[in-house]
Amino acid sequence: MKRIYIIDDEPMICMGLNQMLHDYGRFDSIVTFTDSTAALQEIIANPPEAVLSDISMPRMDGLELCRNIYERKLQTRIIILSGYNNFDYAQKCISYGVREYLLKPVTELELFPALDKVLSENRTGAFSLSWLEQWLERMEESIWTSDGNRTDELLRQMQSELANGELSFQRQAVQDGLMLLEKKLNTRGTYTFQRLPDDGEAKRDASDPIAKLERQIREWCQQLAVYRGGNQINVLEAALAYIDDHLNEDLSLEAVAEQMGLTPNYFSHYFKKMTNETFVQYRLRKRVERAKKLLAVPHSKIIDIMAEVGYDSYPHFSRTFKKMTGYSPTEYRAFLGIK
Q1: 234-336 — its CATH code?
Q2: The pTM of the whole model exceeds 0.85
Q3: Is the separation of the CB atoms in 8 and 60 below 8 Å?
Q4: Is 333 helix (H, G, I), strand (E, B) or coil?
């Protein structure tokens, strides 16, 4: 028996949708809810084939409802009805496994094809929302930093996750994942990343979605290399230049990571891997190197040099300098023969 649940806090809308679904004629049971919390309890206890839900509701909104359904790996297909023509809403819905996102007021011409589509799916397999979000974040960072080894590893992870799913599920997961990944890359605003056109490869991709995913990601990596003139360490060079230009500031790893468009955890790992130094070690070394150059200039005041390399306390500056060089600033000048 095919069941569908209608969830909307407005009774009149529930009545209208109920009538539409009776006219549609492919569900044996149609149940309406004006309370999304009560609806979720029933969905968990008796998962229906489909849910037709509003996105803006009190107590628990449609996004939260979708998240709960998705994280429990229920096989219920979700169609969202929304008054918001907003990509962010649609993006979040897709990440929660929503199959269709329709704008209110919806008509039979829009709703019936969406219902046909979700009922035709024979989806098995799912992965957790948190895993998918982390995978997309890591893949976007690996593309952006031209980290080929990490890209390969992430592709293997996704292949493993999709391996046991039905073909229809693989196609949908790849389609949604590529759309979100493209959006993440283009949101940076630095370059324009384009999807591959439908060509002779499209038919092969239809039967092998994982190959499609890999082909598209390889293409984006190549696009980025072309944009950067083949420079594989552009991000690192940009980060080092930014740190060097701001040595007189209390610059944090988080601030540099944000400037580079990376998460702090990944930037910390990436920085150490590429330089064999931590962020703090590099910044300290560069500050001391600059201080040594400035101290070699006669008549320059130590208090001015201290500020130039990012210190506002002479004792702190003196201790740090001596720890790194074996001399205090005054002793270093004397070593150079400068009085």
Answers
A1: 1.10.10.60
A2: no
A3: no
A4: helix
Residue 51 pLDDT grade (very low, low, confident, very high; cuts 50, 70, 90) = very high
Provide the token pair at 54: 């509003």
Question: Nearest-CA neighbor of 213 among 223, 199, 201, 224?
Answer: 201
Rounded to the nearest integer, the mean pLDDT of the chain is: 84
Both tokens of 148, joined, read 């080929």
3-state SS assignment for residue 54: strand
Q: Put the strands of the sheet holding 100-103 in their side by side order.
A: 29-33, 3-7, 50-54, 77-82, 100-103
Identify the bridge partners of residue 54 per DSSP, sorted by sequence position. 81
- Residue bearing the bigger pLDDT, 122 or 37: 37
Enter the tokens of residue 28.
């044996």
Structure confidence at residue 270 as a pLDDT band (50, 70, 90): confident
Host H or E run for residue 16 = helix 11-24
Task: State the fold for domain 3-120.
Answer: Rossmann fold (3.40.50)
